[in-house]
Amino acid sequence: MNKCAYENRAKTQESLDYAANNPMIDKNEERRKKEKKELEKWEKVKKRKPFKNYFLILLIVITVTYVVDELTSNINGTIKTDVIRFFYNIIGSDVNSDEFNAASGNFFVLSLLLYSGVLLAPFYKSLADRFGRRIFLAINTLGMALGMFICMIAPNLVVYLLGSMIMIFVTPNDFHVMYIMEVSPAKHRNKIASITKSLGLLSVSLLGVLRLIFVPDGAGAEAWRYVYLVPVILTVIVGALSFFLVQETPVFVNKRIEYLKQTDEERNQKEEEIKKDASKAQGGVKNAIKYIFQNKQLKWIFIAGLLYALGSGATNYYESVFQIMGSQEAIGVAIVCFPIANAILTSVTGFISDKVGRKKAILFLGIAACVTLVTYVSGAWLNLGGVVVGILYGIFIGCLYSASDILYLVMPAESTPTNLRASVVGTMSLMLFVGTAASWGVIIVFQMLVKDWGLASLATIPFLALAIIITMIKTKETNGIDLDTLTGKEFE
């Protein structure tokens, strides 16, 4: 062996020995190779031109995704009393009876125990800041179908609640909302979101039609199962369309490419910056929580949102309020009518929000929600019929949910940079779920005290009022923010 070869062999061995004693070198090299492949993938995606009429197709798919999201969100509520009566074997019992109240309380407690899986939702949603929006849109939609299918065939209450847990896990993630936010022009963002959502809300009438068909007066104890069949089939179809037709959002692609092109030195520098400023983090629940409480705007949005969530419990027991009217036909008609009123109102609120701003829209809608909550409950007490009660309830939830969407989704999204947007919105959803779950408990407790679902629902009004006041005083307007250039510093 010549001297040169010997020296090269020695250097190679030395390098191998060094690598063996420093395993991070191999790991870093492996990471760089993976990131190089990922970078090539996203650069190809960036160069790929959307097919003809893609934006129109995207809006259609997103709209139908809204449809199945609303069906999934509402289906359990439309048949809740039937489910409780069946699994607790109290068929025919009045909804304000002690027997039904005890069953409702037990159902609530078990629901909270099994719904604990929702605590994982922020970790799941934050993955969209790493892997993209598209794949999770499809997975999320198919998860809705799975949850509803399990509920439909559930042999006992535990299995039913497991199916419900899946549904509750996937529906608040709202990846379709993120798509709308990231592909729409800033000045039309909330209009487009409201129009697509209003069409989704309108579809909830289908649940009322299905209830009228499958759960008429005198129907069998298990008739409620058939209400799930059509939504399950539709949701599977939409999930497939999301997977095969939807492309990644340009905003995410650009930000991901920017991150992958950074050197290790730049990333190390950024890590040091993140310790001082969480807005520079590349997603993650920990970073999102840190950023929420570091950023004054998001901190107050969270506090207001938590209070608003505490006031939203009335929406979980609307079918119990409808039961006061005493007729399955009236209940079914009310369930058909309320989504129509909700959709009409929601389609208008987007224009209002883009015109007058997010804060003024929340003020108007929040006050209107409090007023119409009183009127819808009064309509049930006076037995004004399914049409009137349904329309009044539809106006109530149209105002309530339109304001909550602005507060929970639009304002946080318009206050957070792209690299943290999904993580922040997902983390807020978890925190707000805690408030929502607590509001269910508030209503259960009040109902046991006053023995009237209507009066119990009215107990949520003070929380709504306080949330509105905090939003008006403590938060800054986000209307018209450019999401491409947003840094989060705009609200300091």
What would you say this structure looks like, in words?
This protein has 492 residues and is mostly helical. 76% of the residues lie in helices and 0% in strands. It has helices spanning 3-21, 23-47, 54-78, 80-87, 98-114, 121-126, 128-131, 134-153, 157-170, 175-183, 189-202, 205-214, 229-245, 250-260, 264-276, 285-294, 296-310, 318-322, 328-356, 358-381, 386-413, 418-450, 453-458, 461-474. The model has no long low-confidence stretch (mean pLDDT 80).
Summed up:
With 492 residues, this protein is mostly helical.
- Give me the strand/helix succession: HHHHHHHHHHHHHHHHHHHHHHHH
- Mean pLDDT across the residues is 80
Report the end-to-end length measured between terminal Cα atoms. Answer: 69 Å
CATH architecture: Up-down Bundle
Give the CA-based shape: globular
**What portion of residues belong to β-strands?**
under 5%
Report the biggest beta sheet as strand number plus sense, adding barrel if it closes: none
Q: In the residues, how many domains can be counted?
A: 1
Question: Could you please say which CATH topology applies here?
Answer: Growth Hormone, Chain: A
Residue runs with pLDDT of under 50 for 5 or more positions: none
Beta strand count: 0
Given helix and strand content, the structural type is: mainly alpha
CATH domain class name: Mainly Alpha
Number of helices: 24
- For the CA atoms, what is the radius of gyration? 25 Å
Which bin fits the share of residues in helices?
A: over 70%
The CATH superfamily bears the name MFS general substrate transporter like domains
